[in-house]
Write a structure and sequence with these properties.
Layout (H helix, E strand, L loop, with lengths): L22 H23 L5 H25 L16 H8 L8 H12 L1 H16 L3 H26 L17
Helix pairs in contact: 1-2, 1-5, 1-6, 2-3, 2-4, 5-6
Bound molecules: iron/sulfur cluster.
């Protein structure tokens, strides 16, 4: 499909079911992801190697989480109808407007499928590393961290986004994440 830049900016008024999210709501909506990358990095602090290695892997994972968020803003948000509006539940749409241009919203589904896999390993790397280390050198603390990580990233985060922000999205029929659940 032709990747034309849309001349029609999607306004907050076009999202009657969502309205605007306050700064507090936006912050709360980001908490599960923030907790996930903090917990994931903490898991690496208790796994393999010397303290320097563990600190380095924890830092790399945390950085990956931050870069992943910006990856979504750069490569997915410009195709979203919430780009540049305060109707984006997590505030990425407003941030994305500062360094991207609006693109064709009809390509959103395609871009979603292409770019979401970039951040998917964030959900699995800490569980795999932590799980291997628990088998090799069992620790209750690490087990607790992995369990809390799994609860946050695999239960709280998806339920939170589906029930809260995504459920009001006018683009949900185009979104592979919400298709069939709307
Ligand atoms: S709703 Fe999702 S894709 Fe749309 S602007 Fe917000 S973060 Fe980006």
């Amino acid at each position: 499909m032709d990747e034309k830049v849309s001349t029609n900016r999607f306004n907050d008024d076009d999202c009657p079911t969502t309205g605007r999210y306050s700064h507090l709501q936006t912050f709360v909506n980001n908490l599960p992801y923030l907790v996930m990358i903090i917990l994931g990095a903490t898991i690496f602090l208790f796994t393999f190697g010397s303290s320097t290695t563990r600190f380095t892997t924890a830092s790399i994972y945390f950085l990956y989480g931050i870069v992943g968020a910006f990856w979504i803003m750069v490569f997915m948000c410009p195709y979203c109808r919430f780009w540049g509006t305060q109707s984006c539940p997590c505030g990425y749409g407003i941030l994305a407007e500062r360094f991207t241009r609006k693109k064709n919203p009809q390509l959103f589904s395609e871009k979603f499928k292409k770019h979401i896999p970039v951040i998917v390993p964030l959900w699995f790397i800490p569980v795999i590393s932590g799980g291997i280390f628990i088998v090799i050198n069992f620790s209750f603390l690490l087990l607790a961290l992995v369990i809390v990580f799994v609860i946050d990233s695999f239960i709280i985060l998806p339920v939170f986004s589906k029930k809260h922000g995504c459920t009001d999205c006018p683009q949900k029929q185009d979104c592979p994440w919400m298709k069939g659940k709307a």
